[in-house]
Write a structure and sequence with these properties.
The complex is a heterodimer. Chain A has 15 helices and 2 strands. By secondary structure, chain A is an all-alpha fold. The longest helix of chain A is centred in the first third of the chain and has 36 residues. The longest helix of chain B has about 30 residues. In chain B, helix 3 runs antiparallel to helix 6. Classes of the chains: A mainly alpha, B mainly alpha.
Chain lengths: ~600, ~200
């Protein structure tokens, strides 16, 4: 049976009738995106506060009574897990994926709006379960964000009873939510595109989100499997991962389990997770750079292939997180090789971003500041990744602050800069108002320079051999006093950067009412989401008729065009002919005499 | 157009509408089916990772193979019949007929319920003989894998019950065709998963 393409079906939209169905139990992808985004940012703020607690302890040890070793480790664990899973994954895919996919593919909504709504509410449930662990006996787990057994379930670890259970259950619930959302994103990109929109005409944002979602659908099962087996180990006394252990002189009931198996499963999820966050960031930043440089993205096809290649390779590098687990040297050699190989398509993307800027008509709007800032931090974090990808360099550095510096540059600061670039870039479409440009640029400089002040010295601490994961360094011969001074400086920078994020919140809330009216397409962008008849787009997005796409999303500065961009839904007939094109008279005259 | 050919075109060169009403690269099928196929891939990954864990854990010295519960053969038979009946319902609905449709479709679900009841019986028998979930890794895996499979089947039965109500309430075959097709696909998938698990659980 031949099915009508979705774009041509009269899609039955769920029309809201009350405030509750419009803003709470909404099935509109844009409202769900804002719900996802708001929840993710709120929980991210919790994680930010936790990181400040850690930094205060490290910078000024023994100064704060309310931070003890237990609360320190609980802060480390919750900060890591919240930032990676509940903030970054949820905001990039649940937030931007939801908002941008239907608009960028010219659809009225996601293919399964009800499932989409369910996805958000299940995600919120997972967040609430996680937050509940702050209020149970023993508090949240302090096992480190990797939750390695047997330590996570042993009495010496904070939150070893209820905390770890709530964390694991929350992750399982999160994965259910992600799967519901993910099936929606993938199906909408494949089946919901409007007429004329081939896959190779999709903006790179959609490509990034699409491939990241597929990665997520394949990688989250590994976390699901390990979480389920660990719940069994902790609650039902099985021994999937738990070996025979003696705790305070008493042998536990467990026997013979394999903790290394957990590590493999965890990192089989954990490494693709890096790219689940990075690929949407790559896509979004490509679109921001291209729009504000008024130039088509350099090497569009290469960019798509690189996204696909990175997605595939991300599944064969996981054990580079486990070099110190005592693996066979050949095993380490294999993973070092694949790690270096994945750097190739990644570097290719960096070259293409830089070449997009080359001879572009760059407009230094606030989103562009963040996008260019991202190129810096990403190159920086990427290069230190090459150090750590090599077994012999990783072994001495693995347990030091060098690793903390590396992954915060590549996995923390870089995606967050893209998030800000994207939030500022699409803010006028989401709200219909412009933000305060000066405040946004001040926000950029505080964040960009501030994060360098935090993480650059950490590399140095790593080379000194300062170990990570320690609550307090105490007096150690090989760590000089200057390291402690540096730690204090890092803490001051962290407090400054955190406080400066208030600029962002003040700006977006202040501009909601006081921002200049944005109009439909304030940046002069060619992609489809800027061509909606209403701004912000109303339910159903496109008015009476769905758009038709005639070109790719990067027709900027086309010679002879009336404007410096041609939107994707501009027909060929609307393009200027050669006769209409304006030539400079000085050049015309000699030709006229020929 | 193949995937490779699809992603090697130069989008900056060609303007205008490409393809007919259907954008190039969409599948000629219902979106629900595309989503289900993706879900089946995800579920396959879950079961595969459990299998890998099973094989790795099996190598460790404390593994004691489980004596095969005879009931599993009966349960397998029930699930096979369930799948056959649903396939029959699918064949009927494709010709847009109604005769035997209700009995085939409802029957398929009923046999699946019997399968789950059989599995529960197996769990009780195991516990009665001291094979608790934490007795040995082999037993732990047995409960875990069969439980997870049953959970997937329960999810399918929820969709099946909704479709059954529509069918009994008099929905026309063409209205319910897609639901029946997707249920059948899901049932066959779970049968294949079960057969693979059954072979693994009884041979190790």
């Amino acid at each position: 049976m031949a099915y009508l393409p979705l774009a041509d079906q009269e899609q039955e939209l769920h029309h809201p009738h009350s405030w509750v169905t419009k803003y709470v139990w909404s099935q509109d992808h844009k409202v769900i995106a804002i719900q996802y985004g708001g929840t993710a940012i709120a929980v991210g703020c919790v994680a930010l506060v936790l990181s400040l607690l850690m930094r205060m302890q490290l910078g000024f040890p023994e100064s704060f009574d309310f931070i003890d070793p237990n609360s320190y480790y609980q802060s480390v664990t919750m900060h890591g897990m919240i930032m990676v899973v509940y903030l970054l994954t949820a905001l990039f895919l649940g937030g931007f994926g939801n908002y941008l996919i239907p608009l960028m593919v010219g659809a009225r909504d996601m293919v399964f709006p009800f499932l989409n709504m369910l996805s958000y509410w299940v995600y919120l449930l997972s967040v609430l379960i996680l937050m509940a662990s702050f209020f149970v006996d023993g508090g949240p787990t302090g096992a480190g964000w990797t939750l390695y057994p047997p330590q996570a379930a042993m009495a010496g670890t904070p939150g070893h009873d209820m905390g770890i259970i709530l964390m694991l259950v929350s992750l399982v619930v999160f994965i259910v939510a992600f799967t519901m959302g993910g099936l929606n994103y993938v199906t909408t990109v494949l089946q919901g595109r409007c007429r004329g929109l081939t896959m190779m005409r999709l903006p790179l944002s959609v490509w990034g989100i699409f491939v990241a979602t597929i990665l997520g659908l394949f990688a989250f099962p590994a976390l699901l499997v390990s979480a389920i087996m660990m719940i069994f180990d902790t609650l039902l006394g099985t021994s999937f991962f738990m070996p025979a252990v003696i705790e305070s002189g008493t042998p536990l009931d467990h026997n013979g389990g394999s903790p290394i198996l957990f590590q493999h499963l965890f990192w089989f999820f954990g490494h693709p997770e890096v790219y689940i966050v990075a690929l949407p960031a790559f896509g979004l930043v490509s679109d921001v750079l291209s729009t504000h440089a008024r130039k088509n993205i350099f090497g569009y096809r290469m960019m798509v292939w690189a996204i696909i290649a990175i997605g595939g390779l991300s599944f064969v590098v996981w054990a580079h997180h486990m070099y110190v687990s005592g693996m066979h040297p050949y095993f380490g050699f294999f993973f070092a090789t694949t790690t270096l190989i994945i750097a190739v398509p990644t570097a290719l993307k960096v070259y293409n971003w830089v070449l997009t800027l080359w001879e572009g008509n760059i407009r230094l709007n606030a989103p562009m500041y963040f996008a260019i800032g991202f190129i810096f931090t990403f190159i920086h974090g990427g290069l230190t990744g090459l150090f750590l990808g090599n077994v012999v360099i990783d072994l001495p550095l693995s347990d030091t602050y060098f690793v903390v510096a590396h992954f915060h540059m590549v996995m923390g600061v870089s995606p967050v800069l893209v998030l800000f670039a994207a939030l500022y870039h699409w803010y006028p479409k989401i709200t219909g108002r412009m933000f305060h440009s000066g405040m946004a640029k001040l926000h950029f400089w505080c964040t960009f320079l501030g994060t360098y002040a935090i993480y650059l010295p950490m590399h140095y601490l790593g080379f000194l051999g300062v170990p990570r994961r320690y609550y307090a360094l105490g007096t150690t011969d090989f760590i000089p006093q200057s390291a402690q001074d540096l730690n204090a400086a890092i803490t001051m920078a962290a407090l400054f950067v955190s406080a400066s994020q208030l600029l962002f919140f003040i700006n977006i809330f202040w501009s909601l009412r006081n921002g200049k009216k944005a109009g439909g397409n304030p940046w002069g962008s060619a992609s489809l989401e800027w061509q909606t008849p209403d701004t912000p787009p109303i339910h159903g997005n496109w008015g009476d008729e769905l758009p038709t796409v005639y070109r790719w999303a990067y027709d900027y500065s086309v010679p002879g065009a009336h404007e410096d961009f041609i939107s994707q839904n501009t027909p060929e007939s609307a393009e200027p002919t050669v006769d209409e094109q304006h030539f400079d008279s000085d050049i015309d005259q000699p030709l006229a005499g020929v | 157009m193949s995937f490779i050919k699809n992603i090697t075109v130069k989008p900056w060169e060609r303007k205008g509408i490409i393809g007919g009403l259907r954008p190039v690269g969409t599948f000629d099928t219902a979106p629900e089916k595309v989503a289900l196929v993706f879900f089946l891939v995800v579920a396959s990954v879950v079961f595969s990772l459990f299998t890998v864990s099973y094989i790795i854990r099996m190598e460790l010295p404390d593994w004691r193979p489980l004596s095969d519960p005879a009931q599993l053969w009966l349960n397998t038979g029930l699930l096979v019949i369930s799948s056959i009946l649903l396939q029959w319902a699918r064949t009927i609905v494709q010709t847009e007929a109604r005769k035997h449709l209700i009995s085939a479709f409802i029957g398929g679900g009923v046999f699946a319920i019997l399968f789950i009841a059989g599995q529960m019986n197996t769990w009780q028998d195991l516990q009665a003989t001291g094979n608790y979930i934490n007795a040995n890794p082999a037993t732990s895996f047995f409960f875990l894998l069969t439980g997870l499979h049953a959970l997937h089947l329960l999810g399918g039965l929820w969709v099946w019950s909704k479709s059954s109500i529509r069918l009994i309430a008099g929905s026309k075959p063409e209205e319910i065709k897609l639901s029946i097709e997707l249920c059948t696909l899901y049932w066959h998938f779970l049968l294949i998963v079960w057969l693979a698990m059954f072979a693994m659980l009884t041979n190790t």
